[in-house]
Hints:
The chain has helices spanning about 30-40, 165-170, 170-180, 200-205, 215, 220-225, 245-250, 275-285, 285-300, 300-310, 355-370, 375-390, 415-430, and strands at about 10-15, 20-25, 45-50, 60-65, 70-75, 80-85, 100, 105, 115, 120-125, 145-150, 155, 185, 190-195, 255, 260-265, 315, 320-325, 330-335, 340-350, 395-400. By secondary structure, the chain is of the alpha+beta class.
Amino acid sequence: MKDGHNAAEYIVEDKEAGLFRIHRDAFVDQAVFERERAMIFDRSWLFAGHTSEFPNPGDFVTRSVAGRPMILVRSDDGEFRALLNTCRHRGNLVCRESKGSGAEVFRCFYHGWIYNTRGELKGIPGEEAYSEAFDRESLGLEPAPRMHNHRGCIFVSFDPDIESFEDYMGDALAVFNNTLDLGDLEFTEGQYKYSMRANWKLIVENSMDGYHGAATHERYFTHFIPAMGLSDSVKPAGAEPTPGVPLAFAHGGTQTLRNGHVTIAMPSSERTGNRSSTFLEKYHAAALAEFRNGLVHVHGEAKARMVEGGAGNYLIFPNLVVIDGWRVFRSFYPLSPDYMEISGWALMPKEDSPELRAARLEWYLGFQGPGGFATPDDVEALEGCQAAFATRKEVEWSDISRGMKATGPGGTGELQMRSFWREWNARMTTGGHAESWDD
Ligand code: FES
Ligand SMILES: [Fe+2]
């Protein structure tokens, strides 16, 4: 039986025949969920936040990372730190605000222990009541076992022995750097937080799913986009758009990036613009032209096209999705097999004029926002999948074979999902990376 310890039984792959199926228990079983925590979330590099969220000494944000409450803080010595948000006395959350600035200390309200912004324990009411053995020096807020600041992106790992961030990223590092080359980037004010009654792996699949766009987001792609006077204009130079394939995915070309990372399109200097640019070109042409001139000045023509066009949607395994067409970072954590919390941030260049910034945000929120054309549809679809997994004794398998041994599905194939699941399977069984992620 599938007891969560033989994850291989959750996947049936027949490369010869071109079939790939997932057992629906993988989305539902408590034992799978607990093993995912131990084998995946506790042993990966995880995106935690961006330094632009807490740029100055005394600035901080708090959030949960892989189930752990954390404080991301810029300390008085200028260092960025990721501290576990639990008091060394008897456990309380030390900081209960979601963000702040100008902090000099964090004071636990339960008994009043005080920590400085480096996490050092500095004040204990009635300290004389402790014995000689009590070691205040060793009772600072515990940092995440590993932290890495990659060009302002803070990643943490709860595995002290994890490989280096660069090794972990594999071929995704170049794609990620291409995203970060857009400028001096910052998360815009605010964070889009929502939740779904669905398994976290469903949003991994959905975030890179070109197949669902035309059906799930029909109103957007077949009504709104034409009504805005926009066309399927994102395509490889000289190629025609694929009928019925939303242009966000039309350039296709899924590439595995090792270690479970995968993109639905590589950055390319052969392409001009992306999903955002078509809108900006039509309605904010002068502001975009000015921004493009700046990009060309920094990178030259070809690289500037690559940077602006971006990579489509891509996954940094296990749970960071970068949606280059909208300049969005999305991460998510399961709280149970059938429930997850999701965060979205807009990562935008500080060089943007106010007009361009407003336009980019409008475009982002119009599709991805709480009242946007896409996200509510996707929530509905994924919660529908989860609800229907109640039939899993009778209907056991989901299929993600699309594009195996076939040519021509373009951006609507499912290689990106198979790549994710192959890594998932390896992590859950051997604990290491998969040996291959391609069909
Ligand atoms: S739990 Fe924080 S001071 Fe007691
Ligand atoms: Fe969608």
